[in-house]
Every structure is written in C-alpha cells, then in structure tokens.
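On to my pick:
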Amino acid sequence: MRVVIAGAGSVGRSIARELLGHGHEVTLVDRQPSAMRVAQVSEADWLLADACELSTLTEAKVDECDVVVAATGDDKANLVISLLAKTEYGVPRTVARVNNPKNEWMFDEAWGVDVAVSTPRIMTAMVEEAVAVGDLVRIFTFHQSGAGILGLTLPADSPLVGSRVGQVVWPTDIVLACIVRDDRPITPSPDDTIEGRDELLFVTSRDADEQALERILNRGPEAS
C-alpha cells in the first residue's frame, strides 16, 4: 500500500514509522524546513512543500497512492488536503486529523474525509473507559458510514461472566469484534468464555440498538 502523509510533525512521523514497519510505502510532506527530520524516518520519501497546493500533491504522486493522511496541526489545512485528494486525484481513502474537537462536524464526506481522528475525543473516551468499569463507551465513529466502535470493561460480577460467546445473541448490526484480556487481544470464537475484567470491543452500524446491547451487558445472555 502507498500512503502520503501531509504533516511531518510528531504525529505524522509516528504514523509513518508504523506503516513502514508493516511494509507500506510512505511519503511525508511538510512545508516547514524544521519538520524535515529525515533521519528519524529515513525509509520514507520526504517532500518539502505545501500539501495544500495541487502542484505539491502532484509531485507527491497522490494520484498513485491508496491513502492520504492529513495530519497537520491546522484543521483548515487538513480539510483542504482531504478535499483535494478526493476530488482532484480520486484517492480511495482519506484520513484526517482533527485538532480542535469543535471543528469535528466539518470532517465528513462533503470535505472528502473518509475517517476523522480526533485525538482529544479518543483520549477522553479512554479516560472514561478507565474510570467507568461497566459503562459502555463510544470510542470512535466513522464519519462516512456512521459505524462506531464501542468499548466496555466487564465488571467481575457481571451476569455475562462465565458465558460462552456463542451463547449470547448480540443485537442486530452489533458485532463483538475483540476481547482484550490481560493486555492481550483475542479474536472471539463461539467457544471462548467471557471473563470478568475483559475489555469488550464492539463494531456497530449507524442504526444499531445500543440500549439492547446495554440490556444484555447488564442482565446477561437471557436478555438477548
């Protein structure tokens, strides 16, 4: 996969290192000479230019890439980059960083954004999850589809403890995607047993009945 990342700050470089480690091709673009820390991500291609300019995106061969990541510290720039990538170059997927949660409402398909990532919102969700065992927390929402990722740390006395995954009929359009146990992710199978303090991660559709999910989590398999 070929990825162009606009914004070579700490966020952009971190994303680049992860992608390179998984065997992907990465180009980092930034207009600030101070951001050209090539030695820190030497395997990436680097371009000193303004990613809000069509000429820069053309030079970065955005038309040949699979994903554009707009990871600058400027929300306006991230919107412009996403829009240009989608409308002018037909990039299959755009991911945009939201710096100010107040601007999150703009990061949608109208601006060419497939996935918006709001770091403050994700951090808030993680804090809420950490302090509210037993509460269902929305961790992430995909703006294009409206699908979401919900998480819950199961209390030790939950009626679900001891149940097999296959015994539980989850609500329509809600899928148990992962169980995290002792910091180890587990792909749930019907025969896996749910244990206290498990972190359950669900993928839901836009119209999923989250209240029905909460009833099952609070009352056990018989509520499904």
In short: The chain has a mean pLDDT of 88. The radius of gyration is 20 Å. Residues 102 and 118 are 10 Å apart (CA to CA).
